[in-house]
Amino acid sequence: YGINTLGGSVNILTGFGRSQGRLRLRSELGDYGRFYTSLKFRGCRNRLQYFTWANFSRSPDFRLAHNPDYMPNADGGRRDHSSFLKMSGGFKLKYSISSRHQIGLQTNVISNRFDIPPNALMSRPRYWKFTRWQRQLFSINSQHHLGNRMLVRSIWFVDRYANTLKSYDAATYSTQTKRYAFTSIYDDYSVGFNIYPEFQWLPLGLTSGLLAFKQDVHRQRSPETSFDIYATRLFTVGLQQNWNISSHWFA
Fold first, then answer.
1. Burial of 10 per CB tally in 10 Å (0-12, 13-18, 19+)
2. CB–CB of 44/50 below 8 Å?
3. Which of 198, 184, 193 is CA-nearest to residue 228?
4. What pLDDT is stored for residue 31 in this prediction?
5. What distance in Å separates the CA atoms of residue 137 and residue 91, rounded to the nearest whole number?
6. What is the DSSP letter of 3?
7. What are the strands, taking DSSP E only, across the chain?
């Protein structure tokens, strides 16, 4: 998805089922109230392969071993304001138009709410929390063999990232009247494509290229103001020629 991917991205190339649908359910429960569950379903039908998933996890404030004297904001019971609630899900579809042409769809949705523990070592820490942390990603992927010597792969994507960070007056997390209290709202998105052509035209070796475009838009505001908008556009063009010197050496 290009540089500066919103919210970070880990690319996992999952396998697809080649038989009837397979369902997998996993649940975990911790001794201090943490709960996690996930549901995955995968399979194929004729030329269509599919994989879908959903995850849910929540946790109260985690437990502390003891109360060190040098930590004024740790009471020795639980780490104050360390709870979270996380939900995510999505699907992948791959359709084989023929043996030489494939197309895929992917979406991933994340919706979180998590607290930020105050600094345990400071007498006057900051009291922050993310009341919203969301991401929505949608992409179309394709692969095409054009003749016997040309392959073109492409990714077309829309990536949206939004969160709300709040700073409160005190450990009650109920008021925002102090001068340092604030509410910061982000609503960012990226849109673009990456095209990767590969050619076997020269006897030297594989010739590969890159044609990419990405538009990043950052929008930030407080509840009383309109959005401040910052946008960048990036075009990238690249060409690489491999040189097969011998069966053991190439450049």
1. exposed
2. yes
3. 184
4. 76
5. 11
6. S
7. 22-29, 35-45, 48-59, 84-98, 101-115, 127-146, 150-168, 182-202, 205-221, 228-241
Beta bridge partners of residue 49, listed in sequence order: 44, 94
pLDDT tens, position by position, 183-233: 999 999 999 999 999 998 888 888 999 999 999 999 999 998 899 999 999
Q: Is 69 helix (H, G, I), strand (E, B) or coil?
A: coil
pTM over 0.85: no
* pLDDT tens-digit map of 37-84: 999 998 888 889 999 999 999 999 888 776 566 676 766 677 888 899
Which residues, 6+ apart, have CB-to-CB distance to 241 below 8 Å? 202, 204, 205, 207
Q: Return the structure tokens found at 96.
A: 């084989």
